[in-house]
Amino acid sequence: MLTEERRNLIVSYVNEKNAVTVAELMEEFDASAATIRRDLSALHDEKRIQKVFGGATSINKGDISTFEPSVSAKATLNIEEKDAISRYAASLINDDDFVYIDSGTTTLEMIKYIDNHKAKYITNGIVHAKKLLEKGLNTMIIGGRCKASTEAIIGPECIDGISKYHFTKAFMGTNGISISAGYTTPDVDEAMVKEEAVRHAYLSYILADHSKFGQISSVTFADIASCCIITDKEATKNYTSKTIIKVVPKGR
Question: Is position 92 within any domain?
Fold first, then answer.
């Protein structure tokens, strides 16, 4: 494992656990005490973790995000990673699938790579529906209230609409991934829509780049084991022991 990769995983692990010992990190990453201490010193200097005697703590300990960036702001983040994730996700669609596509920038990017015209698609993303139609795909959109910041359809009517369907696959976005909190988002109305979609899907995939690991937003919409994760970097063992994770490095 490359030094940069291991250090990124250490930050994610520390953020998830809040506090860890050098011995824990040695076992988790199969590395010597000297290597782990060098990593912790470097990460402390970069202000990514707080080095303490015998281990490290998260500098974000106890932080729960209630902030929802705009779609335009999200679209500028981790572009190459999202491209690789979305390309792989699109390849999972089969002819007989009834696919739910959640609102979000990575799921929107995925539509660019969808070439299966035999499957059926349903979404709560306003722009998503437009892009699907432009490709000549069999498209449905859920009714309800429009949320401007995420360009998503939400509310009781949306949830009621989703409850009538049974999807073979659901492709979902998330703001955070945590062992303890599961998959989270800042908005309770949007979380309820996501929860209903996951509940009514045979297989649910979370499309998330590495920055989402160890992050917690204010509302949980699914537990960690209920979805498979498609991401761009290896996750720590505490994640891989709980759910299926497919890593698709950028450029693939």
Answer: yes
